[in-house]
Specification:
The protein has 372 residues and is α/β, with parallel strands linked by helices. Helix content is 39%, strand content 15%. The structure holds pyridoxal-5'-phosphate (PLP).
């Protein structure tokens, strides 16, 4: 049996007619950059998330970069984030000449350990970027409380967490701005790159809308130096169709996570592989189903051999990346992140997985541990 890590073709088969009609409509219009299709998606995402504003941009990475730009983060500033994340989180900070300052994660949720933030705050600290990793929200009450007291901005890296919620409030309105990615492997994935920023702050949203078109509100009049980071009409049209299915797909991921839990329990695997934990009050949308596995690399190779796709998100924490040598962090500085990077393994979790495929993944893991 083959169980790929993600099967976008299975999803596409279900929506093909509808998506192709939406693409064709854009082609007939021949309007490709921003425009009414993008506005329509912005309004739909704002409504979905519960924000008053949404700004479509070229990628999740740019959503982070533009958010920092709109908050005036620049050379010499510091921004607090986690080392256990996709590179874009830290990269956005560095690209503006600011310095990423890391705090470790919590072992159970892989999300920012808020208790470590305060000791990292200096006179140069401007913002905090918690990451809602794998599809569940970070500890936003504690993070917002610190931010409020210390007058810092909060940018949610919600790239993996569209539809996730904490205490009934959706990711995207839990901080000052929420950054989403429409990279194809995210829960709401486009046919290419795309991103969006949500906020309830009108002046930030106006600034973001200007920064994505070279800092201009009126054509050829530039009030600030921005970048080119626009969402395409074609992407917006595809995403508008897919947004209607998002909750169903996320529910499918949640059901599959529950099935894995039962299968792992029945197979008595829990002493060899630790399953992901959901924090109380969190609605988890499982962009990834990430276990901690003994003999992780051997298990991964065994699964590959048996046709099961997996991935390691993420093998090298940011503080140990060679591009960050000059930050002078060392191995041992963030032990929870380092241990996570050595043990994590993400398993197939997409909505279209069959019960047979889920059972096969669990059986194959059981088979591996019976021999190792
Ligand atoms: C995917 C992702 C991003 C970047 O999004 P792109 O659209 O690929 O630029 C940022 N942060 C996290 C945590 C992500 O998973």
């Amino acid at each position: 049996m083959r169980v790929p890590l993600l099967d976008l073709k299975a999803q596409y088969r279900e929506i093909r007619t509808e998506v192709m009609a939406a693409i064709q409509a854009v082609c007939d219009e021949q309007g490709f950059i921003l425009g009414p299709r993008v506005v329509e998606l912005e309004q739909a995402v704002a409504k979905y998330v519960g924000s008053t504003h949404a700004v479509g941009v070229a990628s999740g990475s740019d959503a982070l970069l533009l958010s920092l730009m709109a908050m005036g983060v620049g050379h010499g500033d510091e921004v607090i984030t986690v080392p256990f994340t996709f590179f874009a989180t830290a990269g956005a900070i560095s690209r503006l000449g600011a310095k990423p300052v890391f705090v470790d994660i919590k072992p159970d949720t892989f999300n920012m350990d808020a208790s470590q933030i305060e000791k990292k705050i200096t006179a140069r600290t401007k913002a905090i970027i918690p990451v809602h990793l794998f599809g569940q929200c970070a500890d936003m009450d504690a993070i917002n409380d610190i931010a409020r007291r210390k007058k810092l901005r909060v940018i949610e890296d919600a790239a993996q967490a569209i539809g996730a919620a904490r205490k009934g409030v959706r990711a995207g309105v839990l901080g000052d701005v929420g950054c989403f990615s429409f990279f194809p492997s995210k829960n709401l994935g486009g046919f290419g790159d795309g991103g969006m920023i949500t906020t309830n702050d009108r002046s930030l949203s106006e600034s973001l809308a200007s920064l994505r078109v070279h800092g201009s509100r009126v054509k050829y009049v530039h009030e600030q130096v921005g970048i080119n980071s626009r969402l395409d009409a074609l992407q917006a049209a595809v995403l508008r169709v897919k947004l209607n299915y998002l909750d169903r797909w996320s529910e499918g991921r949640r059901k599959n996570a529950a099935k894995y839990e039962q299968l792992f329990k029945d197979a008595k695997l829990l002493d060899r592989a630790t399953l992901p934990k959901t924090d109380a009050g969190n609605h988890h949308v499982f962009n990834q189903f990430t276990i901690r596995a003994q003999k992780r690399d051997e298990l991964r190779a065994y699964l590959k051999d048996k046709g099961v796709g997996t991935e390691i998100y993420y093998p090298i924490p940011m503080h140990l990346q060679s591009c960050y040598r000059e930050l002078t962090y060392q191995k041992g500085d963030f032990p929870v992140s380092e241990r996570a990077s050595e043990a994590v393994l993400s398993l197939p979790i997409y909505a279209e997985l069959t019960d047979d495929q889920l059972a096969y993944v669990a059986e194959t893991i059981k088979e591996f541990y019976s021999r190792h």
